[in-house]
Amino acid sequence: MSDILSTGDLRRSFIQGETEIHVLRGVNLHVGPGEIVALLGPSGSGKSTLLQAVGLLEGGFEGSIRIRGEEAAKLNNDGRTRVRRDSLGFVYQFHHLLPDFTAVENVVLPQLIHGATNEDAKTRAESLLSSLGLGHRLTHRPSQLSGGEQQRVAVARALANRPALVLADEPTGNLDEATADVVLAEFLRLVREEGSAALVATHNERLAAKMDRVVRLHDGVLG
């Protein structure tokens, strides 16, 4: 089966004053079906920029980005939105949950946008949250949840529409070490159970070692 994600000679530069800064310098990356890949690198190495590129979250990139075999780099806004909706899930360092919605409502909403019925979306949300140990917290709002619980809700939300690829940017970076270990273990377990692939940016060697494969980004180049 072909790669879920592949990039070819992916480049990104910024102009700062009179200086051109090369953030990505020709990245060639492949993620296979069901594969969980750690994107390891120090702060400023270009990890977030690479995730923004393959997540089709902004333009200005040169090169190829293929998602499930479709060349997505040159799609118009509607096309990029379609690929994000149908194929991608996102988890960030900060959970970005909707504060006025309960845990289950935060996981239901993206499914409704995707076209699910309210009944099916709620059943799916409750199942995901329960599998993450939050069955007793379904009606709690984010402010009533701990940091680890909030991030578990964000994980459930990312997987709600059964994405082919989950992109995670330092998903445990805002948690203490013990909580980070638990949340990452739950994230990896659920991604594997759902059959999704994942690209997880981190600067933590210990956490990266728990994934299927590690690629290292340094000065905008994979090594």
UniProtKB/TrEMBL annotation:
PROSITE patterns: ABC_TRANSPORTER_1 (PS00211), ABC_TRANSPORTER_2 (PS50893)
InterPro entries referenced in this protein's UniProt entry, alphabetically: AAA+_ATPase (IPR003593), ABC_transporter-like_ATP-bd (IPR003439), ABC_transporter-like_CS (IPR017871), ABC_transpr_LolD-like (IPR015854), MacB-like_ATP-bd (IPR017911), P-loop_NTPase (IPR027417)
Molecular function terms, GO-annotated: ATP binding; ATP hydrolysis activity; transmembrane transporter activity
GO cellular component terms listed in the entry, alphabetical order: membrane protein complex; plasma membrane
GO BP term, pick one: lipoprotein localization to outer membrane
Gene3D superfamilies in alphabetical order: P-loop containing nucleotide triphosphate hydrolases (3.40.50.300)
EC numbers for this chain: 3.6.3.-
Domain ABC transporter residues, every copy: 5-222
SMART domains linked to this entry: AAA
Keywords, comma-separated and alphabetical: ATP-binding, Cell inner membrane, Cell membrane, Hydrolase, Lipoprotein, Membrane, Nucleotide-binding, Transport
Keyword Cell membrane among record annotations: yes
Family, similarity comment: Belongs to the ABC transporter superfamily. Macrolide exporter (TC 3.A.1.122) family.
Protein name per its UniProtKB record: Lipoprotein-releasing system ATP-binding protein
Organism this protein belongs to: Sphingobium boeckii
